[in-house]
Amino acid sequence: MLSQSKIKQSIQQIPFFFEGLTLLAVMIFLGQAFYYAHTSPVSMDEGTYLMKGLLYLRGDYYPFQDYGPWVNKMPFSFLIPGIAQIVFGPGLRTGRYFSIFLSLLTMLFLYITIHQLVGKKWATLALWVMAISPMWISFYVHATTQPIVACMLMAAVYLILGDKKPLWQVVLSGILTAMVVLTRQNMAPVVLFTPIFAFWQHGKRAGWFASIALVLTLFIVHVIYYPKIFSIWADMIPFSIPLLDQFSPQLGIILSKPPIQHSNSLRFTIFLEGFRFYFLPLVGLVFTWLLWKDEDRSHGMILRRAVVSLSLLVISLWGVHIYGALGNDYCPFCYSGYISFFAPVVLLLVLISMDGWRKKPGQASSVVVVMLVLFFSIAIGYSVRLSLRWLLDLPVPRISNGQILPGASQLWGILSFGSGASYTLLKDLIPTLMCLLVGLLTVISGFVIVRFNKSKTSGAYTTAIIFLILGAILLPMEFFGKGNYSLNCPADVIARTEEVGAQIVTVVKPNSLVYWENDLSPLPLLYLNNVRIFPPQLNHGYSFFLQGDPDILAKNGFWSNELAQRWIEQADYALLAEPYTRKWLKSPIFLSRYDEVNFTSQTDPCDKKNGSPIHIFRRKD
Question: Can you list the positions of beta strands (E) in 20-141?
């Protein structure tokens, strides 16, 4: 029987073995990425990032302009997609393909960073983790800020990690770090990583240059967009700072979409989903903090500094997004998407430290590892309970007095009859217990393997490795890696969006003034020829207020019923989704001024209920 060392030697002698595995991982990633790009439902965010970016780069408006679009994110979140559209043409295809390109760059920076720190086998493994993570891929193909931020952050980390980095790379890392924050304000903790690591690893000179580059980039952009850019920080910080509060507009009005109060149970379930969708990075991260040996001799000072610095970065980013999405109840369903901002850095941290995990941890650490395996098994079981409801319907033989009777019963019926438990309880309990059983078998397997193979590792370490391997096997499966979320639909979303845009273009003349009211996404507007719009409508109901001074609202990128009435009287065309068509057809003024001339195909083929056609109305005069 071949020993582990002989197997490794045999693999290493195969020409281009790891290179071939790397290329295969990239191809698998790309295949899924293009599939999801064409079949994933559209979102309002994609439309706002692309449309605002196009308006800014085309020169129609500039960020934070009075009476322009509502700027609720940092300016680069719009400008970068805008640049892509100026170069390759406007539209959803450009936005999603550009995101795929950025994802490939992220994989490249991740690969070469790990390769230079711990070798190509770990670098290859990193790309395979991304290739088998469907939810992770789905976040990176949308025309949103996740792929932009992840790419720039991974590039900044690559440029600064390691020893004897050229000064220009360290400086560029500082600039990219600033650009990350200028794209998404929620990534603010990253500004501490580059200067601290530069001082610690590369010395005072590099530290000062990196810090100056970072601060100067932030300063210049804030000066360009002063003073309204500070309203972004005023809205983000959870406590009042008088210096910032003065930049937040005093609207004195009521938003039409008040915050929804989500239950603690729902928020906890969403938190657990994060461990499932990013199983290998997040579960591996917890094991890393338990098993990593902080020993200079075994790891080297360079690797030790990287692990410590990245840990502090991940803790700060993870904590901020847990609070923002779940603790602050801002957007619980955004939590998994938020993790994708820094997931490559988490994976980097796990893989560069994994070779240094303690093979025989102490008793306390071993107990914690085993308990965590059982906890994660329960947590994952609870989070996938809706996807595993079919377990309750499994046929079970009918038995009476020790004899098998004809026919079969459903599992939940047998369990309910024997315990008196309701179906509602069993649908949550059975999947959870099934996953707990898998966790118990994992623990038993780990200790049995160590005992009979006389391994040099402990049962706890072996259990952790088996658990991660099991997660990697399950991750591509729909019930595990996708959960209850629809990542695709049978129609081509990009083609449908282009079709809708083309249908509108045949009616709406260039340079027309267009009233737009929809509740899905402003993506169809990307395909129109230099039309003028009312910018506050791009964010639909999220920027709509029930009352307030119309001029103050419009000046800050918001709108109301009063403004809607004014605008629809001024417009040359009205593009209305189904619900708003019904509303306006009840208005005598609207009926006297507009005729419906056409309607488009359904805007979102993935959503039969809400993805309604766009009804095109033209002024009679």
Answer: none
* Contact by Cβ (8 Å): 277, 135: yes
pLDDT number for residue 2: 46
Task: Determine the Cα–Cα distance for residues 157 and 197; give it in Å rounded to an integer.
Answer: 10
The mean pLDDT value for 106-133 works out to: 95
What whole-number distance in Å separates Cα of residue 175 and Cα of residue 183? 12
What are the structure tokens assigned to 283, written together?
Answer: 């579960």
Host H or E run for residue 100: helix 92-118
Domain ranges of the chain: 16-249, 364-482, 493-619
Helices (H) and strands (E) in the chain, counts: 28, 9
Max CA pair span of the chain: 89
Is the model's pLDDT at 470 over the cut of 90?
A: yes
Residue 33 and residue 449: Cα distance in Å, rounded? 38
Long-range contacts of 585-594 (CB under 8 A, 24+ apart): 589/565, 592/620, 593/569, 593/619, 593/620, 593/621, 594/618, 594/619, 594/620
- Report the pLDDT value the prediction gives residue 517, as an integer from 0 to 100: 92
Q: What is the mean pLDDT of residues 490-519?
A: 92
pLDDT at 546: 85
Q: Which two tokens stand for residue 106?
A: 């992220």
Residue 487 is predicted with a pLDDT of 67
Dihedral (CA of 134, 137, 143, 144) sign: positive
Nearest C-alpha neighbor of 137 from the set 488, 519, 378, 526: 488
Q: What's the length of the chain?
A: 621
Look up residue 545 and give its amino acid: F
What pLDDT is attached to residue 383? 80
Mean pLDDT of the chain: 86
| Residue 1 pLDDT | 42
For 572-590, how does the pLDDT look when each residue is reduced to its tens digit (9 = 90+)? 999 999 889 988 999 998 9
Cβ–Cβ contacts within 10 Å for residue 521, how many? Answer: 25
Long-range Cβ pairs for the range 537-541 (8 Å, 24+): 537/567, 538/47, 538/48, 538/51, 538/52, 538/69, 538/70, 539/44, 539/48, 539/69, 539/70, 539/72, 540/44, 541/256, 541/257
Is residue 483 predicted with pLDDT exceeding 90? no
DSSP per-residue letters across 109-177: HHHHHHHHHH-HHHHHHHHHHHHT-HHHHHHHHSSSHHHHHHHHHHHHHHHHSSSS--HHHHHHHHHHH
Q: What is the pTM of this model?
A: 0.91
Say whether pLDDT at 422 is over 70. Answer: no
**Cβ partners under 8 Å of residue 169, min gap 6:** 159, 160
What is the mean predicted confidence (pLDDT) over 557-576?
Answer: 93
pLDDT at 262 over 80: no
CA distance 73 to 53: 12
Whether residue 221 is predicted with pLDDT greater than 60 in this model: the reply is yes
Q: 403 forms bridges with which residues in the sheet?
A: 400
Give the residue carrying structure tokens 């990032």.
49
Question: For tokens 């359904």, what's the residue?
Answer: 602
DSSP class per residue in 329-369: -S-GGGHHHHHTTTHHHHHHHHHHHHTTB-SS--HHHHHHH
- β-pairing, 395-400 vs 403-410, is antiparallel
